[in-house]
Every structure is written in structure tokens, then in C-alpha cells.
Design brief:
This protein has eight helices and eight strands; from the N terminus they run H-H-H-E-H-E-H-E-E-H-E-H-E-H-E-E. The chain is of the alpha/beta class. The protein has a single domain, classed as Vaccinia Virus protein VP39 (Rossmann fold, 3-Layer(aba) Sandwich). Strands 1, 2, 3, 4, 5, 6, 7 and 8 form an eight-stranded mixed beta sheet that branches. The radius of gyration is 17 Å and the shape is globular.
């Protein structure tokens, strides 16, 4: 069962992405003109998406993938183009609506199934690979590890995810962000120290069958994210 803190933050994210930030997110994830700051975020997300895709086989025919926190579906679409059967889930109905509209390509060799819901829902089924790109960065390390444990129980090959790495600059930005009135700020990013996260993962019995196989940090201006791969031993 998700913890109370996970459920609370998930509710904040649903409100933020479905109401407050819809237009900004739609522009950021398209080729529309954006500010210099958002351009660096867009470039960072594109680089991270390419990195995670490089950790998967080029030919994904016959593989089932969960895009956990799919947003507007860019990763899902690329995986389907490689032949994967993709279940893409997000808490925001509006973002899922955008994803469906952007993925209207009848010539895809794979299959795309966009759903509104919780990425930890066991009813989504089993998968060869689970990808959670920038969808766990708003959670504390304890909730991240518990979420990974639940996802790993339904993952047969690898689990790819990103966290916000704990750096002096990101920690300062995180602290300053908390000074703004709650209604005027996005759900906080929770900086995580990679070493501490690895130790938590090692102590989690449900994650014992997996090991950290790869780690890569992507930094592009105002985008900073750390990717990790948990693979079956």
C-alpha cells in the first residue's frame, strides 16, 4: 500500500499538472517557443529520454513496458516505435489527453495504451521493463524505495528511474522554493543523495533480486536529474 506521504504528494501533483501547469507543460513538451530557462529544461528532458531509451534494446518487439508517470507521452511513443507494447499511466487526465492526441499514429509497430491512474496500481499488470522518468523526483527517498519495491514486484527485466540528485545548488533552490506561499509554487522536488538511496535500496528485501546496473547524471541548465537502472541479477 502507498504511504500517506506518497498519497498526499500524488494528490498535489494531480492538481498541479491537471490545472495549474497545463499550458506551460504542453508548451515545454512540444516544439513551441519557450523561455531560455525552459529551453534548458526541454533539452535536459530530451537528453534524459534518449539516455533511458539507450538502456533498452533497440528492438522492443514482444516487450511490455510501463511508462510510469508518462506525462505527454514522448517516451511511450518512442518505445512503441521500437515495437513495444506500452502501458502509459499518469495521474493527470489533461496530460493523458495531450498524449493521446500526439500519439495518433496508426503506423506504429508497437501498441500504446494511455491510462489515467496511479503508476503503483497492481491492476496494470506485469512488464518486462518499467520506466519512471522524472516521476519520482517529488517524493522522499523512503517513498521512492517503497514505490520501487512495488514496481519491481511486477517487473521481469529492468526498472529505470530518475531522482533529483542532492547538490548544493539544488538543495538551495529547494529551500528557497518552500518560502513561497503554497498556492504559488509547484510541488517541491526532493533532492536525494545517490549513496544514501543505494543503501536504502540494498536494505529493501523486496529489491534483493535486483541490482543497480547503471547510473548517469544529466545536467542542462535548469535541468538536473540522475538516472539509475535496477536490473534482475
Amino acid at each position: 500500500m502507498p504511504s500517506a506521504t506518497y498519497a498526499s504528494r500524488r494528490s498535489e501533483l494531480e492538481t498541479y499538472f491537471d490545472r495549474t501547469a497545463v499550458e506551460a507543460w504542453a508548451r515545454l513538451t512540444s516544439d513551441a517557443p519557450v523561455s531560455r530557462i525552459r529551453a534548458t529544461v526541454r533539452a535536459g528532458r530530451e537528453a534524459m529520454r534518449a539516455e533511458l531509451l539507450s538502456w533498452l534494446p533497440q528492438d522492443l518487439s514482444g516487450r511490455r513496458i510501463l511508462d510510469a508517470g508518462c506525462g505527454t507521452g514522448a517516451f511511450s511513443l518512442e518505445a512503441a516505435r521500437r515495437g513495444a507494447e506500452v502501458v502509459a499511466v499518469d495521474v493527470s487526465p489533461t496530460l493523458i489527453g495531450l498524449a493521446r492526441a500526439r500519439a495518433a499514429d496508426p503506423g506504429l509497430p508497437g501498441r500504446l495504451d494511455f491510462r489515467v491512474g496511479d503508476m503503483l496500481d497492481a491492476a496494470l499488470g506485469r512488464f518486462d521493463h518499467v520506466v519512471a522518468m522524472d516521476s519520482l523526483i517529488h517524493y522522499r527517498s523512503g517513498d521512492i524505495v517503497r514505490a520501487l519495491a512495488q514496481l519491481a514486484a511486477r517487473t521481469d527485466r529492468s526498472l529505470l528511474f530518475t531522482v533529483a540528485p542532492r547538490t548544493p545548488l539544488l538543495t538551495l533552490m529547494h529551500a528557497v522554493g518552500r518560502l513561497f506561499p503554497r498556492g504559488d509554487r509547484a510541488p517541491a522536488i526532493e533532492p536525494v543523495a545517490e549513496g544514501s538511496l543505494r543503501r536504502r535500496i540494498a536494505r529493501e528485501a523486496a529489491l534483493a533480486p535486483l541490482a543497480v546496473a547503471r547510473s548517469r547524471r544529466i545536467a542542462r541548465g535548469f535541468y538536473l536529474s540522475q538516472a539509475l537502472e535496477l536490473a534482475r541479477r
